[in-house]
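Batch job 17 of 40 flagged for manual review because the log was empty.
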Amino acid sequence: MAREVQFTFDCADPAALASFWAEVLGYRVQAPPGGFATWDEALEAMGVPPERRNDASALTDPEGVGPRLFFQRVPEEKRVKNRVHLDVRTAPGLTGDARMEALEAAADRLIAHGATRLERHDPDPPLGTGHLVMADPEGNEFCLD
C-alpha cells in the first residue's frame, strides 16, 4: 500500500528556508486556510501572536505530485551531517561534460539564493555519473544530481 509522505526540516527561520526550497524545487507556499487571503490574516484570526508567526511554513508541489515540505522552528542549530538528504534531479539523461555543465549552472543559480557548494564529484564510469554536493542556507546538505 502506497503512503503519502512529507519531508520535515528543522530550522531557525521557516519562512526563509521555505522560500529557498521553493526556488530549488519550483514549489509554492501552501495556501492559507479557506476564507483567508493571507497567512497573516489566518494566524491573526487563530490568535497566534506576531512573534510566533514564523514558527512553521509549508510548501506544496503545484502539480500535486511531489511530497509536501514542512519547515518547523527549533531552538538548536544543525550540528552534524544529514543522515538523509534530497537529491535534486537537475540533469536527468545528461552525461559527461554536458551533465556537469548543467549541474554547475544549477549550482550557480542556487548559490545566488543562499546555497553553498560543498563538493564536486566528477563522472567516474561505469557507475559514477557525477554530482555536486550543496548546502541550503541553514547548512542542510543536498545533491544536484
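Reviewer: the log was empty due to a logging misconfiguration, but the result itself is present. The longest strand covers residues 6-11. Unflagging and moving on to job 18.
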